[in-house]
Amino acid sequence: MIDYYETKSQPITRAMVIQAYRKVKANKGSYGIDGMDWQDLDKDLSSYLYKLWNRLTSGSYFPPPVKEVEIDKKNGGGKRSLGIPTILDRIAQEVVKTPLERIVEPHFHKSSYGYRPGKSCHQAVETATRTAICHNWAIDLDIKSFFDTIDHELLMKAVRHYCKDKWVLMYVERWLKAGIVKVDGSYIDRTTGTPQGGVISPLLANIFLHVAFDKWMEKNFPNKPFERYADDIVVHCKTDKQAKFVLSQIRKRMADCKLILHSVKTKIVNLCGITNEKYPRSLDFLGFTIKPAWSKTKSGFWLMPTNFISQKSITSVLEKFSKLNIHKWRKPIGELAAALNPIIRGVMNYYCKFYSTHTYYVWKQLNKRLVKWVRWEKGLYKKNASRWLKIKYREKPNLFHHWQLVHP
Questions:
Q1: Which pTM was predicted?
Q2: Percent of the chain clearing pLDDT 90 (strictly above)
Q3: Residue 345 and residue 402 in contact, taking contact as beta carbons nearer than 8 Å
Q4: pLDDT at residue 4 tops 70
Q5: Can you tell me whether residue 126 is helix, strand or coil?
Q6: What gap in Å lies between CA 30 and CA 23, rounded to an integer?
Q7: Exposed end of the chain (fewer CB within 10 Å): N or C?
Q8: pLDDT at 273
């Protein structure tokens, strides 16, 4: 029987470890450098969790290096590195993250939306779109290699400002110093940054930018609204002159915090609907494009900032469907729908949150892939394959989730 209040030198109970295990397992995820997956862990769960708790409470836990994994950036933008901790290390991070988050969460800025309970991407996009109605100019900020370049000394200074628990500070510092096993198998020490892929990394990034950006903006530009989702930031201004000045000051602030704004991706955007060839007229934020569009109001049609699925997101979704090679699947259409619908729902739940017409192109392309599947599966020409799919739509109009928006 577990003693939920038993502790040793550090105030960590077994219950905290068990709760962390359940939360991390719910999020799934790959294995780290030790090769242990969830099936391996669950074979001897009690023993592994007891040993982890024992080391955490005695202060003898030192995190192993993270495993570097490279993934493709959206729209062919090269590679992005993730640092994957071991499963047990992710559980240990969750043990420390939970009390730290409880301490710092009440201090976070209302305009910070990333990786926070009760906050979401959609809230950030909705606020950015609404704010742009009365702020004609925006600054689209891009911090170059943010997660890889966070200064450890400045980060620990920020964490210490809010958290006085020595055991939390000790383990946070150890995670920052944990090395990296590269894709080629070589080991390197980490002197800056916190790896994307770690459980505690998003919280540490939020703490850093809360001090480096949010509180600084609140103090120096209290009348300039912004939305921040982790390191994706949009700042709103009334005029282009304001935007130029604010951007110059933000650039200096980032330099003081040992961060660099991307020289190309950081830009001033004109969202007022008036043509100005000097500035771009749209910005991409969290998978959406915000730009002026004709909107119907009670007093007529007006050019107003509106959000659409971004071109990069369209390309990414279609690439996902393309890689599935749907036309080669040899199975009944019911099984095909059952396999595709979870993916379709995920896309619809995210990009159709505000309205759906701007996603119609995606669903038309998917229907074309379904027609191609019919041609291969039934041996029909294109016209007959299209007719066969329309018959299936009339029989079962909800067979594919997207047919409620665009039917064949």
A1: 0.92
A2: 85
A3: no
A4: no
A5: helix
A6: 15
A7: N
A8: 65
